[in-house]
Amino acid sequence: MSVAQVFEKLEQNFNADAAAGLDLVFQFDIEDDKTYHLVINDGTCNLAEGAHDDPSVTLIMNSETLQGIVSGETDGMQAFMAGQLRAEGDMMLATKLGELFTMG
């Protein structure tokens, strides 16, 4: 699965109820691919390619780690502890990804 397909899958598995009242930007800096960002705004989710001017949190990883997390094979916290995933900005927001998107 390509990185673009992984993000399309994420977008399809978006939980709008969990995003009610939120205004966040998750940026994904994929080291061996492109940068993408997801804009979560009061129950909506919009995926865009490229960097955002002011992301709430930036998650930095390679495509293999991304695919593992989205498929549910890799635990995001374990990837973070193992150094496979880095976060810049509000790191606590990264924990919300599991609520906002159905993984696996």
Automatic annotation (TrEMBL):
Could you tell me the superkingdom of the organism this chain comes from?
Bacteria
Q: Which residues form the SCP2 domain?
A: 8-101
TM regions (residue ranges): none
Q: Report the PANTHER family cross-referenced here.
A: SCP2 STEROL-BINDING DOMAIN-CONTAINING PROTEIN 1, STEROL CARRIER PROTEIN 2 SCP-2 FAMILY PROTEIN
Q: What is this protein called?
A: SCP2 sterol-binding domain-containing protein
